[in-house]
Structures are given as C-alpha cells and as structure tokens.
Amino acid sequence: MTNQRILAHFQESAELKMQAAEVLEQPISYAIELMFSALSNGNKILACGNGGSAADCQHFAAELVGRFERERLPLPAMALTTDTSILTAVANDYSFQEVFSKQVQAFGQAGDILLALSTSGNSASVINAINVALERDMRVVALTGKGGGEIAKILTDADVNICVPHDRTARIQEVHLLTIHCLCDGIDVALFGGDAND
C-alpha cells in the first residue's frame, strides 16, 4: 500500500508537469523578460510567500545572489521572509497581513520586480505586498495555483500570473520549484548568453 501511494505521487507530479509545461511556457517566458529587463537596468527582485512558498522565495534569492548553474556576478534578489525581527515586529505592532507590504514599502522602487508566491492565490499578506508594489510602479510575477484566486484579479496587463493548473497544494509547490529553476536559467541565459557548460 505504501509503495502504491509513493508511485501515485510520482505519477501525478510527472503528469502535471507535462500538462503544465504547455500552459505555463509563455507566462514563464514573459516573466523571464520582465526580470531580465529589471536586472539589466540596475533594479532588483523582491520575493514573498508563506510556509513552503517562503522557502521557495529563499531558494530563488539564493540562486540569484549565489549562483544557479554557472559562475557569474551576484544578482540583486531578496527574500522578504527571512528577517525574524522585521517579521515579528510588524506582525506584533500592526498585523501579519502587513509583514511583506511594509518591506515592499521600505525596499521596493519603481522598476523593481515582486515575485509573489501563493498556492491558493488568496494569501492576504501576499496580496497586500502586491498592492503596494503596484502603487510603487513595480511589476509583479505571481506564482499561484487553484485558478489564481484574488491575486489573478488584481494583477495588471503588465504583470504575469504563472498559475499552475491544479488544486493540490503539494503538486502546485512542485511546479513552482520547477518554475523557479526555469526563471533562474532564463535570467542567466538572457544576461550572459549560451549554456552554463559552454
């Protein structure tokens, strides 16, 4: 029984990834263009999300500041999920719903990108961060699922919603991680050309 469940997880994940590839190829490509443009103009990428999505934000920032698959100069990306003093101060003094929006107000500038992750598309703290980003003339790349939720409704035509066509949180997160790797690879190729092994 356990082995069957394990195989079922792998099969469902693999099937979703192939299905999602067709749906998400274009929005991922557009997100890469937005990020490349921002980084090449001296702007930065801020990332926010809760729980597993917070871990994905940190993963993304680490790949840009450190490296993905090639040696290169560090790229300016910052996860808004890591400073426990800021997170707990804002949550305590205001509300948890403002833990990311306050940081976008502090660090975000026109031309920057907000990478906003929410598997449901309904996370209040992420929605508030998006609203502040849009007020500051930042562009938003949203990674969502389950139809995109409220986030899909507030994005502008200049933003991009990479919405995984699935309702199961674990499967959405798996595709979000693959998407993050696609973004990192696309940014590297757009900025530096070729392949990491060239």
UniProtKB/TrEMBL annotation:
Pathway: Carbohydrate biosynthesis; D-glycero-D-manno-heptose 7-phosphate biosynthesis; D-glycero-alpha-D-manno-heptose 7-phosphate and D-glycero-beta-D-manno-heptose 7-phosphate from sedoheptulose 7-phosphate: step 1/1. The keyword Transit peptide does not apply. Substrate binds at residues 50-52, 63, 92-93, 118-120, 123, 173. Keywords: Carbohydrate metabolism, Cytoplasm, Isomerase, Metal-binding, Zinc. It is found in: Cytoplasm. It comes from the Bacteria. Gene3D superfamilies: Glucose-6-phosphate isomerase like protein, domain 1. Its cofactor is Zn(2+). Residues 35-197 form the SIS domain. Zn(2+) binds at residues 59, 63, 173, 181. It is an enzyme of class 5 (isomerase). It catalyses: 2 D-sedoheptulose 7-phosphate = D-glycero-alpha-D-manno-heptose 7-phosphate + D-glycero-beta-D-manno-heptose 7-phosphate. The keyword Isomerase applies. Catalyzes the isomerization of sedoheptulose 7-phosphate in D-glycero-D-manno-heptose 7-phosphate. NCBIfam families: PRK13936.1. Belongs to the SIS family. GmhA subfamily. The reaction produces a racemic mixture of D-glycero-alpha-D-manno-heptose 7-phosphate and D-glycero-beta-D-manno-heptose 7-phosphate. This is Phosphoheptose isomerase. It comes from Undibacterium terreum.
